[in-house]
C-alpha cells in the first residue's frame, strides 16, 4: 500500500518537483523512500528530468549513468510522447532540423536543432531512427571513407563513426543490449552470369566494441539492384529492394544479425518501385503506394511477417513523408504551381474527417523534406568508445566539446564545435 501511495504522490508531480532538485531530494527523504523504489519511479520519468537529477546526489548519478538503468528506462519510454524530427533545405540549400513533440499540443512544442559541421561536410542525409537515436550519413571527399553520425538530440550528444565506403549503409539499436550497430553492405556480380558470380560482403560495427567485423553467414543470396530508404521497427531494419525482375522487402534482425526477405502482393511486387515507399506507423511497418494521385497505405501486423493489411485510401496529389502517432499522415503541400522548379513546400497533417490541419510552418524544397519519429532515450549519455586504428575512427561530441576524435580528420575542423546543438 505504501508503494502505491508513493507512486500516486510522486510520479504525477515529478514535473513540479523537477523545477527544484533540492525540493525533490527533500521530498524523497520525508517519505523515507527505499532506494529501489526511487529507482522504479525514475525509470518512468522523462529524459530531460533525469539529466537534471544526476546533480542531486552521487547515488542518483551512478544509478542514471548505469547501463542497466539506461536499458530499463528504454523499456518504459512508451509512457512518454514520441517526437518528430523534420529535416529540410532552405532556398540556399542549407539544412535545417526542427523537432516537434507529438502530443495534444502539436505542433506548438518545437525545438530548433542546429548542427555546426566541419568545413568539408556539406550535406548530411537523415537515414533513420532507432530506439531514440537518429542516424545521419555523409560521404567524405576521401573516396575511401564515409561518415555516420549517431545523434541523441534530447541529451545533445552525438557519435561520429568513419565507415568503409560501401554502396549501402544502415543502422539500428539492438533492443536486447541497447547497443547501436551500423551495417555496411557491398555486392558484386557479373550481369552475364549472375547466379554464379554474385558475392555479398556485410560488415557490422557495434558501438560498445568500437570495431568492425565481417559477417560470415546468413547473408543476402540474391543481387539487389537498389536499396531504398531504411525503416526500423523494434529489432528489424527494413528496406524496399529492387531485384532484376520484381520488388520485395528485405529485413535485417539487429539482435540475431540475420537477413530475411518478405514477399509482396503481386500488384506491389511488379509495380515501379519509385511509386512505393516504406514508412513507420506507430511501431509497425507501413507500405505506401501512390498511383495517379491515389494513396494506398498498407500496414504489416506487428510481429507477423508477410501479413499486410490495407488501412486506407486517400485521393491526394501530395506525397506522404511520415505519420503522427495517431496514424494521421504528414504530407508535403504547396500553394505554388507544383510544376514550378522554385515552388516552396510546407508540411501539413491530413485528418480523414477534417482534411488538412496543423500546418507545420517550415518551407523547403520538395525533395528535401524528411520526417522521422523517435522516442526519448538515455542512450549515448555515458560513452566510452575505444578508437580502433585498423577499423576506423570514432569521434564523440557533447555540447560542442570534442571528447574524442579520429586523428585522420583533425585537420578538417575549423573549431571544436563539431556538433553544436541548440534547443530553442
Automatic annotation (TrEMBL):
NCBIfam families: F_box_assoc_1. Coiled coil: none annotated. InterPro entries: F-box-assoc_dom_typ3, F-box-assoc_interact_dom, F-box-like_dom_sf, F-box_dom, SCF_F-box_component. It comes from Lactuca sativa (Garden lettuce). This is F-box domain-containing protein. Residues 27-73 form the F-box domain. Pfam families: F-box, FBA_3. It comes from the Eukaryota.
